[in-house]
Amino acid sequence: MSKLINWFTEGRSSGQYTLPFVILLLGVTVLASAANLLLPQDSALYVSTYSITLLGKYLCYAMLALAVDIIWGYCGILSLGHGAFFALGGYAMGMYLMRQIGDRGVYGHPELPDFMVFLDWQELPWFWLGMDQFWFAMVVAVVVPGLLAFVFGWLAFRSRVTGVYLSIMTQALTYALLLAFFRNEMGFGGNNGLTDFKEILGFDLQADSTRVSLFIATAVILSLVLLASQRILSSRLGKVTLAVRDAEPRTRFIGYRTERYKVWLFVYSAVIAGVAGALYVPQVGIINPGEFSPINSIEIVIWVAVGGRGTLIGAIIGALLVNYAKTRFTAIMPDGWLFALGALFVLVTLFLPKGLMGLYGQLQSKRRQSAEQEVQS
Amino acid sequence: MKLFLSLCLFLSACMTPALAASAETDALLQQLTQTKLSKMPAMVQQLEATGDESLLPVFRAWLAGDLHYIRDDNTLVVEVDVNGVDTFQDPYTQATIAGLTSKQVRKIKVNNKLRGLLRGVIARIQLTSRDAGVRESAVRALLADIDDETFATLERIYPTEPNSDVRSTMQTALSIYTAQDQNSSQSARLAAIDVLGDSLENDVRNVLLSLERSDNPVLSSAATQALVSINRQVERYALVDQLFFGLSLGSVLLLASIGLAITFGVMGVINMAHGEMIMLGAYTTYVVQLLMPNYIDYSIWVAIPAAFLVSGLMGVVIERLVICRLHGRPLETLLATFGISLILQQLVRTIFSPLNRQVSTPSWMSGSWEINPVLSLTLNRLYILAFALLVFFALVMILKKSSLGLNVRAVSQNRSMAKAMGVKTEWVDAMTFGLGSGIAGIAGVALSQLTNVGPNLGQAYIIDSFMVVVFGGVGNLLGTLVAAFTLGIANKFLEPTTGAVLAAIFVLVFIILFIQKRPKGLFPQKGRAAE
Questions:
Q1: How far is A361 from chain B (nearest CA, A)?
Q2: Is A9 domain-assigned?
Q3: CB neighbour list of residue A362: distance below 8 Å, 6 or more residues apart
Q4: What total number of domains does chain A contain?
Q5: Is A233:A116 a contact under the CB 8 Å cutoff?
Q6: How far does the CA of residue A329 sit from the closest CA of chain B (Å)?
Q7: Beta-carbon neighbour count of residue B329 at 10 Å?
Q8: Could you list the residue range(s) of the whole structural domain that residue A98 is in?
């Protein structure tokens, strides 16, 4: 155990804010959960279950942003299709939750989910087999996005598709999946997706305690992923990926197989996105093909850009801030949100190329400079 | 001179159809009002025997059950529904007879047997019409059931028919009769079936199908053979049809991606707002039609330059405000232009409502070109195909021949060298971007004729456009042309077997794999310009 803690904290030198951030994150999580479960509803400090679910959702998005930041910020691969991995993980979880409904569906079929009965299917398609086991569904949620990322990355990076080309290819990938999942024949519920979930691991999904548990689980997993990623990226491997980002041909000439580094980092990132999707679905209660739409994937990129790419924590902060703004905005003036989001894209890329974290860093260095000047004078 | 005069007289006689029936027919028509239904068929034959062409409207009204007569004086009138009120007209002049109510008239009855007879009579009268189109449709109307009389008429006028199209339809009609005629010799019937094998008419197929079931084995096998030959032809035309739809989709893709081929291909700028430039063009068409509702047919000639200006100006503004500041940072450009596309979409949604807007098609663009009974090409798709090619070649000319084109190519190949030679690179950038965006606007005008005009119009095309440009090879306009038509045709040929959605997916996956194999597209740029 102590070894594990050591392993996590060793890379602290390069990411000095990571551990404090994790402690802050977990602290807020525990406080919010306690406020929801222990305080009476009329208390001023009570946190509603709606807010808990919302926070849980934000944390899933944060994890997704983290996944994008790992490859974009540290390896220069701008993926406009990370929503695809997120949605695949989500569908794996959705399939498990669907099987948990059992015969409580509208049609009351013991085996088949409602939409299959509706389509007049007689038996479960092969890819639904075993999805009633939680562990198996979770393996699928990790393996399928990972495998897709591996195949795609292996093909793309080996033939040195880079830059904008790669971005457009990833966008085409998620677009193709969007079209595919809209089809009823695919066996994933078509347009409506998977919904009407009842329980997870035997716990009622509507219960406050389940919601809080999911929220805590998300926070813990996010913290672990953040620490692990920090650790990986400050290791030797991380240094090579930085070199790939800054000068790929030079790194290649030195003797590194750059495509291998890229593929594995891409797979790692896709797996994180898949896990985030799997955590997301039980909290929002639905997964549909809309999650594959290219605009979702591009939104993730703006979260990272706002927070500051190549900082990990920045991606998380960006995701939380932008999504909070989205929630507030769409409640106050629904039409204004796309204006605001569009303006955010333009302004951040024009004036804040390093995001909020970069701004913070600039302020810090300025203060330090002025402090030094004072000392000198 | 005499001959000429008599010819003139003859012509003028033909030109002015007699407004009233002759005395003989008049008497027959008077008789008609008193005849019993069972005696009517004989009357019809007598009337036809007079050879009076002016009776056509009477027969037509009779067939439709609108023929009446006034009780007092047995005058024939035609009932016409004018805005829900029954009024009565003179059958020859179509002049309304005022003050006549339905109580003062009695209907001339018609039954199924009479209807069949009347149809034949009408067609036979039309067969002698001066208008080849009327004759053609008359023969076609006869194909379904030819009786002995019609056959005789057709056989009589067939040798004198001047129009070759009408002749071939007549021949089909004659062959249909002969093929079914029990009294004809077997060789004549076989020859007739052989002729039918070249026809694509629906009625011919029905006749052959019934002959195929006949007891005569020789005729039956001949009919089978003819059907096979017909089916082969139908398949061939279906292929042509598919090809046309593929070309049409290709032309749409070409229009959508050609502007991108300039901004992305030549300038290297990723413009995610390209789709919204198309959308702006489509909305410009809508606004132009709103402004000139009485001149829809000409509105398109206003809309094309207007759309070019609107989208082009927007492009220049975007270039000056955003893109020029992000020079050399393609990924950031991508994000910023994506933000612009969101803003433009929402802007249109706020101004025009999120619902789709209806853009009407000019009358000269609607309708279709019917080549034969199984193949007809819609005119608007045909025009858009031609338009896409026109725009393409105009653009190639601009890039190859104009001074702007020279500058654009210079800047895209070596920016700093061009600058050193005195090219105003910033101005060239803005103009190039404006040109690309303006062409996207023109694409919007064309697309507004094919699809719904809504805020999401551009989004539907942006990924496809990028695929086309990347597939064809960046910086290569000819590659874009080839890629657009290849993808369009591939898509339409896959569709019947896989369905539209799977076809789109297959094409996307194919391109993804293709790019892995040839990252520079179909026609990669060679030489120093490539890097």
A1: 21
A2: no
A3: A354
A4: 1
A5: no
A6: 14
A7: 13
A8: 56-204+237-376
pLDDT digits (tens, 9 = 90+) for B39-61: 778 877 777 777 677 777 778 78
**A:B CB pairs within 8 Å:** 115
Burial of B185 from C-beta contacts in 10 A (0-12 / 13-18 / 19+):
exposed
User: For the segment A321-361, what is each residue's pLDDT rounded down to a tens digit?
Assistant: 999 999 988 888 887 888 888 898 899 888 888 888 888 88
Is the pLDDT reported for residue B17 higher than 50? no
CATH class assigned to B238-530:
mainly alpha
Q: Where are the domains of chain B?
A: 21-114, 128-214, 238-530
Q: Which of residues 404-433 of B touch A (CB under 8 A)?
A: none
Query: Average model confidence (pLDDT) for chain B?
Result: 81
- What does pTM read for this prediction? 0.76
pLDDT of A1: 55
Q: What are the tokens at B138?
A: 């008359």
The complex scores an ipTM of 0.80
Query: Which A residues 287-326 touch B at CB under 8 Å?
Result: 294-295, 298, 301-302, 305
